[in-house]
Amino acid sequence: MFNRGAWKLAASVVASLLLLGGCGLFGKDEAVKEIDPPQDVSYLKDGQSLQETTENQKEEKDVKKATETVKRELYLIDKNGFVVPQTVELPKTDAVAKQVLEYLVEDGPISEMLPNGFRAVLPADTRVLGVKLEKDGTIIADFSPEFANYRPEDEKKILQAITWTLTQFDNVKKVKIRINGYDQDVMPVNKTPIQDGVSRADGINMEASGVIDITNTHPVTVYFVAQQGNNTYYVPVTRRVPNKEKDDVVAAVNELIKGPSYGSGLASEFQPDTQLVGKPKYEDGKVTLNFNEAIYGSNKKNVILDHVLNSLVLSLTEQKGIESVAITVNGKANLVREDGKPLSEPVTRPEKVNAESF
């Protein structure tokens, strides 16, 4: 039999040989494994076997992992029927793409954390059979047959919610759908086309009212404000703008000033006489906008309202290549936030939309 010193030496040698493997975004099967150096060395107590120690370490690791959470964006349907991002804390997992889809299922794990006025988008009992990420950034989501048990009027909302939830991850560009292992060229109820994959460029909460010739337009997504009780949140809306407007930043600003559609339940705090003074300036991912004084929304000098600033930043950073927004008024950068702090630096997009703080 070993004496106590020998047991300790054996434990040290075994522990030093245990390597922890890290996983990527979509789980062990689809990720490149990383090797981490050993972090801790555990010593055996009197009367404790090596197997007992290993099992205890595994249990402690599992408990720690189960209590860790991360913030994710889930696209849900609000009381006005809009598909809206809501940031929630989810248990930490290796297979995050599969997890976020599971949290879109009605009566699923999202039930205990649904914000007031919101509902999940996927039919009850839908199972996520798997996800597969292709090299070109297309992700294939495979659902059980229950996926098709939705109301026809929810079809585009479901497709948008899946697409925008999955494309929150940088390496996901497009989404394709399978049902029970079979590729779908169209959605199963109203036959919305999906054969080449759907991306954010296809829009969300589409508005096309008043557009006569859609072929001479292109989509631009802007963010308006909605409220549920004391909770204020931002809603993305895609509109069709004329192709003659070559600058999508100008087009987005004009749509924000125009405001939301009447009766939509959305709001805007832009003054109707707000205008851009000159063309936007672009430099290394930053766009600088020069407004007239109507951009001020307060009686206090030089104050820009939070909802105006946030809507601008969310809308413009939705566009490719724009990472931050700087604002001047008649060429001067002397704006002040509502909290009294000077707006001295360009504003970047928040990591998660509709989190507790912007």
TrEMBL record:
Q: Which residues form the GerMN domain?
A: 97-188, 249-338
Give the residue range of the signal peptide.
1-27
**Entry keyword annotation includes NAD:** no
Q: Which InterPro entries match?
A: GerMN
What the entry lists under PROSITE patterns is as follows:
PROKAR_LIPOPROTEIN (PS51257)
Q: Read off the Pfam families from this record.
A: Germane
Keyword Signal assigned to the entry: answer is: yes
Which parts of the sequence are annotated with region: Disordered? 339-358
Superkingdom is Bacteria
Q: Which UniProt keywords apply?
A: Signal
Q: What is this protein called?
A: Germination protein M
